[in-house]
């Protein structure tokens, strides 16, 4: 593909992603409102500065007051730009972290126990201090899913794939402890997708002199995945943002088509005419402007729908699929 085309596609992708971050910063405000606020506050600063300097110069130094106002406007602009860039970076980071976490747990929820154990083994393979990692299906009934070496110590690992408010029970820790005792293991880990019950934590604390069982929950699992490179990367997050934008555009398009489809246009004009007649002729003493306002709104919807349908009209009786051939 031509390099210039690739550059255009990359620039368009970056623009759409940045527009998503801007939507988060401005709480979904339209581009028009953002531009209006941008100009309004700068004009307010300029006019206020000019009036301020004119007041103290008693109106005798108009050009000086104007240039002083422009100087204040430039200072305000650069300060606002600095804080905007800082806010943009912070929002981008927060949005990316949130989307990455959502995607990570979505992938986890799509796994079964066997896939999750395999996923944990892949993470351990990429982390320092872990070696000789082995998935032990034959020991699953004893509460051991993975055997490995952590440093020089033989370590038993139990994987808990849970969701919602479910937490790891103390019986799971006791099962792992018994298996470790039989096989003379002194160190173990329970890696869970949720948190741990208080009695589970107390049990592991009570036996720590004999056997150390470390409890690794959601936060630790996320950090391990990040360190192992198994967490959603920036390119994947950008792809998620583009999918969100496309989904929002589809929802907007469907809502627009529903609001302005051809069967609705006739009632818009009919009811608009009805309200117009009521406002002009039948209610002399009533609030005419309400009827006229309602009629104007319905006419506006009808005219907008008419032009939108006219733009897509090709004079064919075939379905929308036929239009895509031309």
List the helices and strands and how they pair.
Blueprint: H1 3-25, H2 31-56, H3 62-109, H4 113-125, E1 130-135, E2 146-150, E3 153-160, H5 170-183, E4 187-192, H6 198-206, E5 212-216, H7 218-228, H8 234-259, H9 262-282, H10 288-312, H11 320-323
Parallel strand pairs: 3-4, 4-5
Antiparallel strand pairs: 1-2, 2-3
Give an overview of the whole structure.
The protein is of the alpha/beta class. It has 3 domains: about 5-110, no CATH class; about 115-230, Trna Endonuclease, Chain: A, domain 1 (3-Layer(aba) Sandwich), CATH 3.40.1350.10; about 260-310. It has 11 helices and 5 strands. The chain has helices at about 5-25, 30-55, 60-110, 115-125, 170-185, 200-205, 220-230, 235-260, 260-280, 290-310, 320-325; strands spanning about 130-135, 145-150, 155-160, 185-190, 210-215. A 5-stranded mixed beta sheet has the order 1-2-3-4-5, sandwiched between helices. β4 (about 185-190), α6 (about 200-205) and β5 form a beta-alpha-beta unit. The relative contact order is 0.06.
Shape: elongated
Helix count equals 11
Unreliable spans are: none
Widest sheet: strand ordering:
1-2-3-4-5
N→C terminal distance: 24 Å
User: Any idea what the radius of gyration is?
Assistant: 33 Å
Strand content: 5-15%
Mean pLDDT: 84
CATH topology of the largest domain: Trna Endonuclease, Chain: A, domain 1
Oligomer: single chain
Approximate helicity band: 55-70%
What is the domain total for the residues? Answer: 3
Largest sheet: 5 strands, mixed
SS-based class: alpha/beta
Number of strands: 5
CATH architecture heading of the largest domain? 3-Layer(aba) Sandwich
Q: Would you list the SSEs in sequence order as H and E? A: HHHHEEEHEHEHHHHH
């Amino acid at each position: 593909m031509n390099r210039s085309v690739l550059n255009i596609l990359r620039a368009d992708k970056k623009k759409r992603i940045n527009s998503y971050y801007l939507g988060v910063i401005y709480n979904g405000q339209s581009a028009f409102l953002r531009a209006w606020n941008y100009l309004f506050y700068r004009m307010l600063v300029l006019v206020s500065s000019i009036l301020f300097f004119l007041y103290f110069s008693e109106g005798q130094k108009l050009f000086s007051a104007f240039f002083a106002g422009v100087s204040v406007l430039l200072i305000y602009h650069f300060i606002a730009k600095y804080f905007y860039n800082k806010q943009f970076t912070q929002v981008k980071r927060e949005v990316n972290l949130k989307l990455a976490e959502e995607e990570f747990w979505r992938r986890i929820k799509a796994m079964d126990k066997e896939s999750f154990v395999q996923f944990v083994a892949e993470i351990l393979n990429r982390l320092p201090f872990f070696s000789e990692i082995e998935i032990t299906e034959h020991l699953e009934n004893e509460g051991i899913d993975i055997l490995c070496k952590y440093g020089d110590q033989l370590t038993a690992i139990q994987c808990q794939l849970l969701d919602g408010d479910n937490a790891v029970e103390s019986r799971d820790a006791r099962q792992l402890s018994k298996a470790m005792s039989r096989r003379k293991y002194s160190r173990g880990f329970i890696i869970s997708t949720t948190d741990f019950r208080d009695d589970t934590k107390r049990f592991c604390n009570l036996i720590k002199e004999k056997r150390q069982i470390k409890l690794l929950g959601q936060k630790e699992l996320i950090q391990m995945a990040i360190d192992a490179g198994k967490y959603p990367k920036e390119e994947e997050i950008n792809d998620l943002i583009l999918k969100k934008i496309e989904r929002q555009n589809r929802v907007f398009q469907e809502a627009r088509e529903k609001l302005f489809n051809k069967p609705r246009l006739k009632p818009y004009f009919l009811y608009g005419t009805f309200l117009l007649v009521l406002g002009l002729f039948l209610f002399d003493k009533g609030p005419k402007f309400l009827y006229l306002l309602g009629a104007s709104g319905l006419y506006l919807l009808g005219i907008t729908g008419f032009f939108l349908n006219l733009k897509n009209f090709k004079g064919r009786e075939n379905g929308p699929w036929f239009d895509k051939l031309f």
